[in-house]
Amino acid sequence: MAALLREVIGEVLRRARTSQGRTLREVSDSARVSLGYLSEVERGRKEASSELLGAICGALDVPLSRVLSDAGHEMAGQEHAAATRAPAGTANIDVSTKVVIPQVVSMAVA
């Protein structure tokens, strides 16, 4: 199963915090977010609002755009890995497949 966006964002935030050698308490105090809630966000259990993400990113001195970009790259990598290891017999759409959808013809009723 593919990871949820909130899980990947949490991983990116945790990596940023730990790479700075900071504790949850330090970042939660700086971001004015409860320690428990920040922990839940990092573990991917809570879906953080954009305001909350902005506060956490501000406390970490990491641009929100960087967190979202990193999360997007990680998700793309996970999706690619999942697609390349799809089991035999799994229906994959061939990019060369063409579908023709006939035009709808309306008929006037008198």
Automatic annotation (TrEMBL):
Segments passing through the bilayer: none
Annotated signal sequence range: none
Domain (HTH cro/C1-type): residue spans on this chain: 13-67
Pfam families from the UniProt entry: HTH_3 (PF01381)
Domain of life: Bacteria
Annotated CDD domains: HTH_XRE
InterPro entries hit by this protein: ClgR-like (IPR049655), Cro/C1-type_HTH (IPR001387), Lambda_DNA-bd_dom_sf (IPR010982)
PROSITE patterns registered for this protein in UniProt: HTH_CROC1
NCBIfam families per UniProt: trans_regClgR
Protein's name in the database: Transcriptional regulator ClgR
Source species: Mycolicibacterium arseniciresistens
Gene, per the UniProt record: clgR
